[in-house]
Amino acid sequence: MATPTLSHHTLPGAxxxxxxDIRTSDRTAPRPAVIIVHxxxxxxxxxxxxxxxxxxxxxxxxxxxxxLSGSGVSQQGEFExxxxxxxxxxxxxLADLRRVMDGLTHGALGLPPTESFGLVGHSRGGGVAxxxxxxxxxxHALVTWAAIARAQRWVDQIAEWxxxxxxxxxxxxxxQVLPLYLDLLEDLEQNASRLDLTAAAGRVAIPWxxxxxxxxxxxxxxxxxxxxxxxxxxxxxxxxxxxxGHTFGATHPFAGxxxxxxxxxxxxxxxxxxxx
Length: 276
Prior knowledge:
Blueprint: E1 5-12, E2 17-24, E3 33-37, H1 49-58, E4 62-67, H2 82-86, H3 90-105, E5 117-122, H4 124-135, E6 139-145, H5 158-164, E7 166-170, E8 177-181, H6 182-190, H7 197-201, E9 208-213, H8 221-230, E10 237-241, H9 259-275
Parallel strand pairs: 3-4, 3-5, 5-6, 6-9, 9-10
Antiparallel strand pairs: 1-2, 2-4, 7-8
Helix pairs in contact: 3-4
């Protein structure tokens, strides 16, 4: 297998540019594409995502990682576009992911047309991946890491959020205060049915590997159990990794592989290899 090469691309997104990285060892022959979807406060170059994309590409797939247009993060990995972050919504993220899939389907981004997709989503990105897999027949395999089971994460703060017109969240890594304007709250209220993650889980009919750590302080393992209980067809294959936290031990900047992350990598690649 040839060594994968990396290229950078930009597509118009719901709130600004979508930054797309493509790693592949062959840009002339069509092959399945695996799209890695980051979560809340995540981005394509956070910690574990570049080595995961490299592994996916070395396995013979086209690996696609992206900064959703509302991520607020620049190509340099810095939170520079806080207004985009503040106005981000689930609907915007779903539209961005669909835009990337459409581009690949139509042979854009320097590749032949792509017919088959796998999705790997982390945390909130896992939720976006579930919603997409439930609705888009181009997705043939799904892997979620620490996926959320409920889109609304700030139930106790809704009154304050509405009164102030924004909810401030702190990026503990950088110390930055990041705004969440009413766009997100209104999207959740106006599109409650479409953004119902457990209902979407019941419509996922493709092979789905659900990975979660039993020491996750951000998204409790009980949410994995909710998704599994709601899963359609045979339901997802659930793997709870002992001792794993929300990022399976990965940090940013990436400080190397952990035993928990190695399991997540290996199981993900086996799943994709079996079903794409």
